[in-house]
Amino acid sequence: MGRISIARKNLFQDRRRATLSIAGVSAALVLILVLDGIFAGAMQQVTAYIRSSPADVFVAQRDVTTMHMTTSALAPSLVDEVRAIDGVDWADGLHYTTSSVDVGNNSLLTYVLGYDTATGRGGPRNLASGQPPTDGQALVDSVAAGELGVDIGDKVNILGYPFVISGLSTDGTYIANTTVFITSDDFAALRGPTYAYILVGAQVGMSPEDLQQRLAIAMPDTTVMTRTEFAKQEANVVRTMAADVMAIMSVIGFLIALALVGLTLFTATVAKQREYGIIKAIGAGRGRLTIIVLAQATWTIILALALAIILTSLIGVAIDALTPNLIVVIELGSIARTTISAFVVGAISSVLPLRRISRIDPSTSFRMA
Amino acid sequence: MSKFAISVHRLTKTYGEGDLAVHAVRNVNLTVEPGEVVLIMGPSGSGKTTLLLMLGAMLRPTSGSILINGIDLATTPERQLPSLRAHHLGFIFQDFNLLSALTAIENVELACNLAGITGAKAADRAIELLQHMGLGERLHFRPDQLSGGEKQRVAIARALANRPTLVLADEPTANLDSSHGREIARLLRQLAHEQHCSIVMVSHDERLREISDRTLWLEDGAFRDLETMATDPICAMSVQPGDATPHYQHSGTDYWFCSTACREEFTADSKKYLRRATE
Predict the structure, then answer these.
(1) Which of A238, B54, B177, B272 has CA atoms 20 to 30 A from the CA of A105?
(2) How far apart are CA A73 and CA A193, in angstroms?
(3) Is pLDDT larger for residue A249 or for residue A225?
(4) Residue A165's beta-bridge partner residues?
(5) Are B28 and B11 in contact (CB under 8 A)?
(6) pLDDT in tens, A64-74
(7) A271 CB near a chain B CB, below 8 Å?
(8) What percentage of chain A carries pLDDT values higher than 70?
(9) Which residues in A lie closer than 8 A to residue B113 (C-beta atoms)?
(10) Which DSSP helix (H) or strand (E) runs through B215?
């Protein structure tokens, strides 16, 4: 049963004002979505190495559950002990530390990974060009190489020693740091034979969870995690570090959206105050007027949200193109959260206009000239 | 069920209390028959608007009753009044009061919707009324695209959308030029008969007396008998002769004035006004 949509008609009567209002609310929602997208992108980047690893299970020093902001030390002999455990198909030690990669005065923070180039299991996710390193050589991420102005065959300083770039890897440069790969032997020569992690592959038919339990029992002085769990822990530590900033920025975005939606609805109500009196006079009850205001809020929110999603996608593409170490990932969860926030904003913003309307005396529609 | 469209008994509205009390309407009695057109006239501040607001269920009387279709508006709970207005009453305003964002047909449909008529039925009703008003070519025009007379015809269509028992009109011709004013007056007369709805109008427009079945004079919150009213020779306003009314006697004839200012103007050059009165 169709009814005349006063809300939509009122909202779009002045198209310029409606457009500005929707664009304003959309801008606030874009702020929230882009921040969420950058954060989700960072999460994806930070965990990319772990998620793309061939290892089913990771072994670390006891109580070490992440790569970021931690140091792990495992005796080299432990690799053979792991290999001997039933259900293990293969096990490789991985050297790891945080340092910098330097070219002249240019310097980037980096994860330094020393891996067994014979198996390649601890190596980069993708090799864009060149070859895996041999002794005295390093793989540098292509984005970092661009920032440092170096290419294959050039020299960079890692852990205080010069290395020749043998190839360029991808997906290893994040907001705060990059990743370089050297041979396990070079790493051991510079920092000692201690491994940070042991990458373990499960035999066919053995689930990662079962293997993890078996290793945890066999090696009680270590932390054993499945790849999924390890990636999750890694994401958690970064999320925790960024949570306050994200929360503050989200609250700012929320407040801006609240102010804009509130202002839009309030001005729309004040501008039509006289007409609300008329609608009341000819028989509209409180319920009908409430529906009009809420429908205006809903229209504003839905259109602003749709515009915000489109704008965020475009901004994401632009960010990806302009800053390769930053990616924007719009997740469904983020859209769902922002949608809920937007509707909460709409509901809160409707309170003042509703109060205003409830106080309008229908008798004012007489003799208003 | 009462045979009257509206029956008002001892209706009183008093603002304030004690020494500061203002009696806007005092013990007014009024009955209007179905299809009857009643014009209420009176000076500014006489209580016309207060009375109209009470008849329109927008102002609670201090005492008395207002019966429409067996419902006493004076005692109906506040939350039920909007629905009552939507179903039993129609309103025509001085300023037309159309919703600016809606087209002519949508303005009328809205009134249908409020009365519970929706969808195609509402659209059909709106088209029927607007065509009847001669606005068949203006259905999708917004108010800012209509002339004053056309706006008031849309407003009349809106007032009739819910097939009301009673239409209340507040100065329906005040913002119209004389030809449009006459046109609207005739239309109201015609509609009252055709639609069999009663119309109570409040106006200063003497032209509306021609189309009214009855004209009532409201002054100081009470109806006066028009038969006993005198006409101010200066401003032509109807005044009730009485001790408190400015008065002047000349050659054995009593002259009554709406104010001392009119009396002074008259006495300053009475010959001129007496000559005019005899012409």
Answers:
(1) A238
(2) 10
(3) A225
(4) A138
(5) yes
(6) 998 887 889 99
(7) no
(8) 98
(9) 3-4
(10) strand B214-219
A282–B87: do the CB atoms touch at under 8 Å? no
What is the model's pLDDT at position A1?
42
- CA distance to partner chain B, nearest, from residue A275 (Å): 6
Of A231, A238, A224, the closest CA to residue A63 belongs to: A224
- Reported ipTM: 0.82
> H-helix or E-strand containing B22?
strand B22-32
A231-249 pLDDT tens trace: 999 888 878 877 777 778 7
Token readout for A27 is 């801008």
**B57 touches B76 (CB < 8 A):** yes
Q: What is the 3-state secondary structure (H, E, C) of A203-262?
A: CCCCCHHHHHHHHHHHCCCEEEEEHHHHHHHHHHHHHHHHHHHHHHHHHHHHHHHHHHHH
Residue A125 sits at φ, ψ, to 5 deg, of -70, -45
pLDDT in tens, B171-199: 888 888 888 888 888 888 998 888 889 99
- Residue B96 clears pLDDT 50, i.e. is over it: yes
On whether any CB of chain A is under 8 Å from the CB of B95, the answer is: yes
Tokens 């609310």, located at residue: A25
pTM tops 0.90, yes or no: no
Phi then psi for residue A139, to 5 deg, are -100, 125
Dihedral angle, C-alpha A265, A271, A277, A279, nearest 10 °:
-70
Helix, strand or coil, per DSSP, at residue A131: coil
Interface residue A153 vs chain B (CB under 8 A): no
